[in-house]
Amino acid sequence: MSSGTVSIAKRCHQKSRSGCQQCKLRKVKCDERRPVCSNCARHFSNIQECDFGIPQKAYNDGPASATFLTSVRRENPSSRRATDARRRYPQLSFTAGAGMPDPFVAYPESIVPETQMFMHHYFSNFTSKSFPIVIGYQSRPFLDSWWSMASEDTVMFHATLLLSALDLEILKGEDDGTRPMLLLRKECIRLLRERVGDPVLSVSDHTIGSVLALSIVEFERGDLRGVRMHIEGLKRMVKIRGGLGAIRSTNPMLANLIFGTSMTVMTEPQFPPGVKKPQPCRDLPNSTSDTPLFEFESLGVSTAHAKIMREIKFMTNAVSLHWPANATPNYCSDVLVRLLYLPQPVDDGPLVASISECCRLATAILCFLPFRNDYPNPTLMINVQLHKLKAVLETMIELAPSDHPLLPWLLSVGGIYALPVERGWFIGHLVSVVTDMSINSWDDMKPHLVKVIWIEFFCEVPFRELWEDVTKKLDTLDLVNLDL
Hints:
By secondary structure, the chain is mostly helical. The protein is 56% helix and 0% strand. It contains 21 helices and no strands. This is Zn(2)-C6 fungal-type domain-containing protein.
């Protein structure tokens, strides 16, 4: 090496590649400390050991595995599939529960030679990005319930492989469609067309799940015409089945996926609430802490809006308290549907109408916070609702006092989702509000947020980051005033 050459050490990769499941779900960097990483030790006192592998609940006994076992499927006569899979993918843990078949031993046949590769990616990667059953982070339907359906149905199995192939294609940056993905998509459509004439199979849970998967694929590919075609077909199938409520009574996971997926890909809810309303879950707590709840009606929220906000408040409390994720599976998406279809109470005056509409939009937006970057990605739908929230907030800010108790929460919900230009609008109004309300620190700010609707597991980080931007803006304004 010449004397004029400077040796530069190559920077090593610092990003976590095998973080714990909790950090992956929260989309935060994990320091991989054992047995409990720093993030989980700070936020979850009840965690004794982090899970750094595939959640074992994917293979545990339960209602999903019962369906799996009672189905009639074609078994592979040998265990060569599983042996090959273990050798090629040693990081997968095949600890099936009692009576639960190894997924690589028994699954429908496929014309795609890369089937095991897509299955491996499905279990090791895709399931952590799938739409949860409820607002809680503990339950992942693509592990808990979806696979038991996909493994017993050829169409749904190919649709599941297609989702996995799509994710691999996106990760590799291949936008034109790989041959396996095109082959899987063609096979899914062919198999679905064969079911059109069957009055039972054409509207079965498996067929509906397959159409949902295809709508996600077309949405991620940017084929909006294909999305509309699949959603219209989905509406017809749900109508034949007796509505979303009828499906929810037998398959809550599928009903919630129908609601969430259709709204996400179309940016608006597609299934109005049924006539018969479910009974609220009686096992939900009333509060997450000693902080009293807001009396929403006394703050200008209409009675109908306040009632549903309290129901959602109870559900989010269950999540914050780490209650079992199955506490509200029959209830979660239904209450969101009723919220989204609430009419604006124009007869109660412009102030009540604007406050109620702001609360409706902000509550719906916040409920999708756990699903950011999942499949299907709700960013487009959230942005549509966010623009509506901003427009109504402008009216509310003109009519309501600047120290209205709901303004910190409403502006914060909009701020955590907004793009940089719009984020500045929310921060600017937050600066005025917190100044008028004498909110000087995060410890002062957080109680105003928790009193409304708050999911500790998901809200703490983005809301606190927004508050830091607000304090920076406040410091900048103070410096300007000093110069003047």
